[in-house]
Each structure stands twice: as structure tokens, then as C-alpha cells.
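User: quick one, fold this
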Amino acid sequence: MVMAHPVAKTYATLGRLRNYGLLATAAAILLGMGGGYWVASFALKPVRTITEVARHVSAEDLTQRLPVPAPRDEIRLLTKVLNATFERLERSYLQATRFAADASHQLKTPVTIMRAAIEDLLHSPNIRPDQVTALNDVLDQTRRLSSLADGLLLLAKADAGHLDTHLGDNDIIQTIESCIEVTEILSSGHGIRI
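Assistant:
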């Protein structure tokens, strides 16, 4: 039986154990953080891929679809739901574009016929002055309808990506003179000087 024993060696050993324990704890924390980051980045790789592809989906190209990951998990389900949503958006967008183009074409013919009939009536010798005023108002409205139909067709073409644009140098003076000429013709009966 030992009654007294020097404790300095024991305290030194305990101090070393404490230091090793602190170092081991710090190393375990760093390894855990690094491992956690690696696992999280590996697990989120499909989400980053989906995000990158979804970023490029636009009205000009609704045909793109997200890559469906192989594992059967929530990300795969989300990807399938997003692809189905893009599919519905593409169909709706194409239907709206088609409708705008069809409506424009369907409006042009009756408006042109009405306009021609009104212009014929205005040249009739038996027309009264109050009828001329009323017919001129109706003619203005048919011109407006015709302009709206043209604008609708232009918008449908632009949305469908079929708008013909010719980039290059142009003489804008010719365009302005043409606009002035048309405007002078249209405004001549109203006492407006351009």
C-alpha cells in the first residue's frame, strides 16, 4: 500500500491527454465540416444542374427540359413536375401565338371588305353631307381595326420568332418622307397640314 506518491507526473500526463483531446476534437470538427461540405455538395449537384438548365429556359426556347436524375428521390420528382410545367407552358404559349396570328388573319378580310364598301359609298353621288360625316367616322374606325389587326399579326410573328429583320444601313429620310406622304393623304380631308 502506498501512502504518498508524487503527483507531478500524473498532472503532466493529464495535461498531455487534455492537449491531445483538444487537438483530436478540433481535427474531428474540421473533418466533420469538410466531410459534411463534400456530402452536401455531392447531394446538391443535381439541384445545381437543374438550376443551371432552368436558367436558360425562356419564351424564345421553351423546348428545353431539365435532366432527370437517376436516383428515385424528391429531386427526381421535382424535376419531373418542372418538366411537365414547362411542357404545359410551351403548349399554352404556342396556342396563344397561333390564336393571335389566326385572329389577325380572320380580322383582316372582313375589315378590308367593310373599308372598300364604305369607300364606294363615299363616292356615291346620292349621299348626303351628314352621311358623309358618319361614313368618314366609320372609315376611320375600320382603318384603326386594320391597324390593330396588322399589329396583332406583327406581335404574333415576333413571339413565334418569325419576324423578318434586316439589319444594316438604311436611309431613314426615305422612310420619314414615305410616312409624311401617307399622313398627308390621310389627313387631307380633315384640314390638317403636315
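User: anything notable?
Assistant: The longest helix spans residues 74-122.
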